[in-house]
Amino acid sequence: MWYGRTYHKISRWFASSQTCSACGCVNKKVKLLSIREWVCDYCGTIHQRDENAAKNILQQGLKELGLFA
Ligand SMILES: [Zn+2]
Q: Residue 23's pLDDT is what?
């Protein structure tokens, strides 16, 4: 991603903005780009869409590279 040669593109189908960065569940209701904030049905965490997506993309990238602890 940002370590030069270790650049890695995450799975295309990964729904970063719909996945709760706290518990990992996917909220299908969050598909409209107009939704900026949503609450996870499972763990109740309030997410800012873009911030949540950024966290998920980071976590997913590390996971796919086998670096996720
Ligand atoms: Zn959650």
A: 94
